[in-house]
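User: structure tokens for this one?
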Amino acid sequence: MKTNRISNSLFTLMLFIAAGCGNESTTIPETEAESADMIEISIAQFEGDSMKTGEISIQKFEDEVICNGNITAPANGIAQISTPISGIVESISCSMGDYVQKGKTLCMISSNELMVIQQEYAETAARLKQLKTEYERSKSLFDEKIGAEKDFIATESEYKVMLSKYQSLKLRLQLFKLNIIKIEAGELYSLFPVISPINGYITSQNMVLGQFIEQQKSLVEIVDVNQLQLQLSVFEKETGKLKTGQNIFFKTMGEATAEHSAMLTSISKTIDPVSKTILCLAKITDKKGVNLVNRSYIEARITVNQKEANALPSEAILKSGKEYFVYVVEKSDKQVYVLRKQKVEIGKTSNGFTEIIGNPDFTKVLIKGVYNLPV
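Assistant:
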């Protein structure tokens, strides 16, 4: 019996101890949760990844019309040179790519037709002198009531017909750039020069020695590069944005980054029914470093509007899906940078800066090394 009492007492004690142990807490104290939008960067990591901070600034942004076109010469900046009569090329004094000045002889042409014209002119000049003398004498007699009126009228008519023929032949010979006085005195030319009417570079040459040249056949093309302009094709839907005087930036084929400037000077009033574009002309204002070649293809941007807005360097902005973010500097000390990921709305991009829409509640952000951080 005594043994049973001892066993019951031990059992009761064990139950008490077990109950006491079950009431003790095994939960670890809860710590403050770290925000998913916050990140700490040590100074060592910041410097090792060449990170840099910057602030929002005011930048200029432009609305632009993108178009393409060609460099072209205006009507008075290009010359297609031919001869007024047919003949044979006797000498050539120019080559493709040469720069020639106005008045320079490009080639010499011989022509039988030229000889005929000179002979006819010299004969007409001699006959005109004779008729002029007769006309003056007849007029004097008629004024003194000595000569008959019909004789005076006949002499006057013949003189005026010959004078008209003389002037016509003289004007025709002047096209050949020959000395009219010598021809009238009987000194005839066997050759005539083809003269450059403008300053410029020879861009086309269609003749060889001994070649027979037909009348009005193009022999040489000369382009004055100092008068070259832009001819742009702008789509119909963009025409309402255009005004003369607007600035244009353009580049030629083969230029990856270099841009040159021009100014819009003319806007066509006719739309091409096929391409649905209008033609615009622009004066090139910056010719330094531009390889001006007639008819070369260009790409252009016409500035149609300007505004100022808050902006950040474009490399400071991360894209995730359809949203954009920046890392705002919350605080920093000698050990760490505390950054906060913040969503932003962006607008236009220009010259390495991106517009930040609205009134942002931050100033300093991470602008370099952003892509080393999670999006």
